[in-house]
TrEMBL record:
<protein>
    <submittedName>
        <fullName>CehA/McbA family metallohydrolase</fullName>
    </submittedName>
</protein>
<dbReference type="InterPro" id="IPR016195">
    <property type="entry name" value="Pol/histidinol_Pase-like"/>
</dbReference>
Length: 513
């Protein structure tokens, strides 16, 4: 294409500093603070949108776009700003460039890592992506997740009582698409109801939808489990009354994980309340995170496009060791070898055990607890690192303490095992940066890891949630969205089952006092 008399050309190559090879990257081009609404021919376009509508293609919600290492674009003469990013582990860049009429601005930029988690055996995943997918789009979508440096993108078919959205062409291993150390894994967010919350399932060899038993989530979990699936709740159990379903299914040990990091509810992404509720009642549950793209971003006022929905704006890391494969990743997730993050990186061990491990200890046995947080002084400056026991801070350091820095925080302590406990690490960084591990579970003399000091409180809170649900299903709703009343008899049976579990917990508490 011939250039106009008042236009010039931008020609950019972006490479990985280590390999010196072109690399997939997220690009945003602005002029005077406004996004340039011209899209390069090489921008990778895929249909995406809310409710599976065609709301976007080449441009992302914040007006950035993805390319596989290079692009060219004709632009009017003037000054521009070029932003380059590749997920959390690479240092993002911003460059001022000037386009002159009749000339080409040609430049190669190198992106460098500040940390390399795969070399540490940890691989990132976005556990909650909604984009319809066929085999034709796989290679294009792979550029998107490579540009965000997400090694596992979980693509979820979504459903509600009435309809399904974002279909996937296959499930289980037939639905996996992989390019080197990057892959897609299919799953489902279904059932989804406003009375019980939204569930997340991945890894099953097929989808499961029970329209006639829609509010009996446990039936779906059981069927998916038989098909090799892992199951949990979305949105931390905070949204859509998910805490009710979380108690209903969590106390009956139907769940594998809980999504505890996400920007759907607020700009404060870590959701601990319901997570600690289950853990303190002695229910092991793995921490995961997901963007819920294209639904959720950091901005909740509607006025900041730079904080809008983005794949990988939160992620969870799973330990696979020296080798990365679907089976090793899924097994690491099954074991709970995870931590969640929107930037900082955590390393946490108890007696050299990873998050998710269970330790059988004798009373008085010494536990060696180590935690490290990694950040970057300019991109992800750390503020504090904590070790928590039963949800309470056991030890804490800040970047201002002696021998601690904004790039590296460390904690180590010895603790005698006096009673069953769960231990986890969490850290905080500037700009709402946060990370949290799945716990290490310590049982003393075989008595579990629940918290005797708070068990009465959480039994009472669980009962409160059950009563909420009971009240919800007593009367017919005129809303088409609220259908739980149709399943009153079956839900009452499940509520009764949970109450028996709560009574057993009360009896155990009384005997121990």
């Amino acid at each position: 294409m011939a250039q106009s008399n008042k236009a010039g050309r931008l020609s950019i190559v972006v490479q990985d500093q280590n390999t010196r090879q072109p690399t997939a990257v997220r690009v945003k081009l602005t002029q005077n603070g406004y996004a340039v609404k011209q899209l390069p021919a090489k921008a990778v376009a895929i249909m995406y949108g809310l409710w599976d509508h065609a709301d976007g293609y080449g441009f992302q919600p914040d007006s950035s776009f993805y390319v596989e290492g290079s692009f060219q674009l004709e632009l009017p003469a003037g000054n521009y700003q070029l932003q380059l990013a590749k997920g959390n582990e690479y240092l993002s860049q911003t460059h001022s460039i000037r386009i002159e009429a009749g000339k080409t601005f040609k430049q190669t930029y190198s992106l460098s890592r500040w940390i390399d988690t795969p070399k540490m055996g940890w691989y990132s995943a976005d556990g909650h992506i909604h984009i319809r997918r066929s085999p034709r789009e796989d290679s294009l979508l792979a550029t998107w997740i490579k540009a965000e440096d997400i090694h596992v993108g979980v693509m979820l078919r979504m459903g509600d009582f009435w309809e399904i959205y974002y279909p996937q062409y296959a499930y289980g291993e037939k639905g996996i698409y992989q390019q080197k150390d990057y892959m897609f894994v299919p799953g489902q967010e279904d059932p989804r109801t406003p009375e019980l919350g939204h569930v997340l399932s991945l890894g099953a060899s097929d989808r499961v939808r029970m329209k006639e038993d829609y509010y009996y989530y446990d039936k779906v979990f059981d069927s998916l489990g038989i098909l090799g699936g892992l199951n949990g709740y979305a949105h931390g159990g905070d949204s859509f009354h998910g805490y009710r379903g979380l108690i209903l299914d969590g106390l009956r040990k139907k769940l594998d994980y809980l999504e505890i990091l996400q920007y759907c509810a607020s700009s404060q992404p870590l959701m601990q309340e319901n997570y600690y509720h289950l853990l303190n009642m002695g229910i092991p549950i793995t921490a995961i995170a997901g963007s819920d793209f294209p639904w959720c971003g950091q901005d909740h006022s509607g006025g900041k496009p730079e904080n809008s929905a983005q794949i990988g704006n939160v992620r969870f890391y799973t330990y696979t060791g020296a080798e990365f494969s679907y089976s090793r990743w899924k097994e690491g997730l099954r074991k709970g070898h995870t931590f969640v993050s929107n930037g900082p990186i955590l390393d946490f061990k108890v007696n050299n055990h990873l998050p998710g491990d269970k330790i059988e200890a004798e009373k008085g046995q010494m536990l060696t607890i180590t935690a490290q947080a990694f950040g970057h002084s300019s991109q992800q400056p750390l503020e504090a690192l904590e070790i928590v026991r039963h949800g309470k801070v056991l030890a804490r350091v800040t970047a201002k303490d002696l021998k601690q820095t904004s790039g590296h925080l460390t904690l180590e302590l010895k603790l005698p095992a006096e009673q069953g406990i769960w231990l986890a690490a969490r850290c905080f960084a500037e700009n709402n940066g946060v990370a949290h591990t799945t716990p290490v579970y310590v049982s003393v003399d075989g008595r579990g890891f629940h918290d005797p000091a708070t068990i009465a409180h959480y039994i009472g809170l669980s009962e409160q949630y059950l009563k909420e649900l009971e009240n919800e299903i007593q009367h017919k709703s005129d809303s088409v969205e609220y259908q739980a009343w149709r399943y009153r008899s079956g839900l009452m049976l499940r509520i009764a089952e949970v109450r028996q579990i709560l009574q057993t917990m009360r009896d155990r508490k009384e005997k121990s006092e």
